[in-house]
């Protein structure tokens, strides 16, 4: 009621009384773009893997170099099948791109242990200071 009296006394009001939301929307879109660009996405191995169960379950940071070994003992890095002889070269390239990333190996329960050991030895030859994390099933 008091607002109507003020508007009629000042000449009617109108569009000048509305709040301009354009600057607020600009800020919201800038924040949205910022969070999309800086988000860390979860990497998937690219092949179905049945992980073994273990007692020691430590979490690994999301930006890791992910190596998968499927049930046929084939090695996958970044969803691409890699020949065991080229695994070292591929890992070396990934290590140059991501020098601080942790190494996570996801080995299927039915895969050959020899392939897992060969992958771990190749990683140690290239970067002996790297800690190799073996992915396991969570309960």
Give a written overview of the molecule:
The chain contains 4 helices and 5 strands, in the order ααβββαβαβ. With 139 residues, it is of the alpha/beta class. The chain has helices at 2-10, 22-38, 87-97, 113-126, and strands at residues 64-69, 75-77, 80-82, 102-107, 132-134. A hairpin with a 2-residue loop joins strand 2 and strand 3. The model has no long low-confidence stretch (mean pLDDT 78). It is 37% helix and 15% strand. Helix 3 crosses helix 4.
Question: What features would you highlight for this structure?
Answer:
single chain, 139 residues, alpha/beta, five-stranded mixed sheet, 4 helices
In short:
With about 140 residues, this protein is of the alpha/beta class. The protein has helices spanning about 1-10, 20-40, 85-95, 115-125, and strands at about 65-70, 75, 80, 100-105, 130-135.
- Average predicted local confidence, pLDDT: 78
The gyration radius over C-alpha positions equals: 27 Å
**Proportion in β-strands:** 15-25%
Mind describing the biggest β-sheet?
Answer: 5 strands, mixed
Poorly predicted runs of 5 or more residues: none
Question: How would you spell out the order of helices and strands?
Answer: HHEEEHEHE
Shape: elongated
Total number of strands: 5
How far the N terminus sits from the C terminus, by CA atoms, comes to 63 Å
Please report the number of helical segments.
4
């Amino acid at each position: 009621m008091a607002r109507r009296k003020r508007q009629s006394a000042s000449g009617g009001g109108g569009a000048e009384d509305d709040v301009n939301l354009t600057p607020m929307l600009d800020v919201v879109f800038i924040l949205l773009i910022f969070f999309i660009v800086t988000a860390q996405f979860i990497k998937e191995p690219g092949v179905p893997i049945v992980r073994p169960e273990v007692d020691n379950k430590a979490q690994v940071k999301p930006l890791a170099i992910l190596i998968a070994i499927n049930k046929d003992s084939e090695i996958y890095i970044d969803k691409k099948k890699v020949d065991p002889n080229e695994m070292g070269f591929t890992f070396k390239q990934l290590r140059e791109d991501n020098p601080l990333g942790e190494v996570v190996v996801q080995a299927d329960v039915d895969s050959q242990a020899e392939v897992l050991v060969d992958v771990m030895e190749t990683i140690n030859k290239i970067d002996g200071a790297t800690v190799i994390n073996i992915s396991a099933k969570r309960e």
